[in-house]
Write a structure and sequence with these properties.
Helix content: 10-25%
Strand content: 15-25%
Order of helices and strands: EEEEEH
Strand order of the largest sheet: 3-4-5
Distance between the termini: 29 Å
Number of strands: 5
Number of domains: 1
Radius of gyration: 12 Å
Number of helices: 1
Oligomer: single chain
Length: 86
């Protein structure tokens, strides 16, 4: 089922909201932070995935990658429970 891509936002641990429709990839940096990349590999946001409560860094990165892929394929991504607002 297709949906309107403009409706997909995810919360980052610092409280910022990022539209996944503008994210084309992510890069895990050696210092542990993750950079969300936009068109032409411009940095849209960076954050430390370990700041998400109740999830390991690698699991957070894997879930974000899956959501980015889902949006690019026109699917509605599943927001993990640990990413929900507290």
């Amino acid at each position: 089922m297709m949906y309107r891509k403009s409706a997909v936002f995810v919360p980052l641990p610092n409280g910022d909201m990022v539209s996944l429709t503008n994210v084309f990839g992510l890069k895990a940096l050696p210092d542990g932070r993750v950079v969300l990349l936009g068109e032409d590999s411009n940095s849209l946001a960076s954050f430390d995935p370990e700041e998400y409560s109740g999830v390991l860094r690698d699991e957070a990165i894997k879930a974000l990658r899956r959501m980015i892929i889902d949006v690019s394929e026109g699917k509605r991504p599943a927001l993990p429970e640990w990413m929900a607002f507290e």
